[in-house]
Amino acid sequence: MTPVPQRLSNRSMAFILAGGRGSRLHELTDNRAKPAVYFGGKTRIIDFALSNALNSGIRKMAIATQYKAHSLIRHCQRGWNFFRAERNEYLDILPASQRVDEHHWYEGTADAVYQNIDIVDSYDIDYVVILAGDHIYKMDYEVMIREHVETGADVTVGCLTVKREEATAFGVMAVDTSGRITDFVEKPKDPPAIPGSPEQALVSMGIYVFRWKFLRQLLMEDAADTGSKHDFGGDIIPTVVKNGKAVAHRFEDSCVRHRADAVAYWRDVGTVDAFWKANIDLTGFDPELDLWDRNWPIWTYSETSPPAKFVHNEESRRGLALSSLVSGGCIISGTEVRDSLLFTGVHSNSWSVLTEAVVLPYVSVGRNARLTKVVIDRGVQIPEGLVVGEDPIDDAQWFRVTPDGVTLITQSMLNRRAEQA
């Protein structure tokens, strides 16, 4: 009998870069980093990278945080505290803590790893998977690690296949017919095409696999380079492309699908429009992202809450939800909810209507409110009779209205509106 090879994930760690604000999400990241932003009714964005690592068999993880990290750290402490050191499992949270000197915070993505070299050394691993903590997708990292070893690459870069005209917003990989990266171009006006596919290009996902000893030496050299920005995409990857062997790994080869013909789902929910759409897409009949797949679950902190409750059954005062996701602890009291996603603990009151609404946890909606195509931040108290989504000019006086017509509502916006009323 041929022995089954050991999973390479057993000799790997995941290093998640989760320090960015995500400024294009505007007020949604005023009090939390982008990876800590809520998504999908129960989860946070960072749960996808962490769940992918866990489901791939990786049991050693580190999360580098920086911008307004309290919400993110608290979430990880509550939802990801099941790792046991006696089983050789670890999840370390690594806030920027001036480990090099008292003036030296994380200066770039590569510097975040460099400042924690001693901690990674202590894991006694062979391979490190560098991950961005702010994207929505399902991926088996074991497939990518194995490709890295089999090709003898110095770095393997996770890549999305996109139309060439869409690639201008990304870092683009020029590759040869074997998949070796021959050039890395940041946001090019004329992106290089995939050999044999002139209308498509490969763009970086911000996912990298290295042998740790190789990356360790590279980080030491980069830290000593005063001209470097100490960034993976800007410095480390171009250096390996030039002086070593960099290989592109196509996401479709390791994407986890709930059925064979499903699309390779990946989203950067980095704008309010993209955030709203990705959440609303989940309310569809057969969403491209399957949160119900028990074979590849998305782990998270699950609050203890009662079931959702719907009350009143009168004309124009009926508690109902159609084509919507309603989380635990919600009370839909005489409110009509359509094509919407409600997070934990949302309470809505009589004669109100929510249409295409993404409502974050513990929002209260007053009576007779009509809210259409909105994102409502956590804990907001919607006053009685508020109408949003029907007059964009009036909405823009008080709230943030996006280019695609989504209205973002926060408590400070409502307070300012009330003061000037």
TrEMBL record:
A GO biological process held by the record: glycogen biosynthetic process
InterPro entries xref list: ADP-Glc_PPase, ADP_Glu_pyroP_CS, GlgC_bac, GlmU/GlgC-like_hexapep, NTP_transferase_dom, Nucleotide-diphossugar_trans, Trimer_LpxA-like_sf
Residues with site note (Could play a key role in the communication between the regulatory and the substrate sites): Q66, W105
Keyword Nucleotidyltransferase in annotation: yes
Domain Nucleotidyl transferase: 14-282
Residues annotated for alpha-D-glucose 1-phosphate binding in this entry: Y106, G171, E186, K187, S204
Catalytic activity: alpha-D-glucose 1-phosphate + ATP + H(+) = ADP-alpha-D-glucose + diphosphate
Highest taxon, organism lineage: Bacteria
GO molecular function, one term: ATP binding
Protein family membership: Belongs to the bacterial/plant glucose-1-phosphate adenylyltransferase family.
Name of the protein this chain belongs to: Glucose-1-phosphate adenylyltransferase
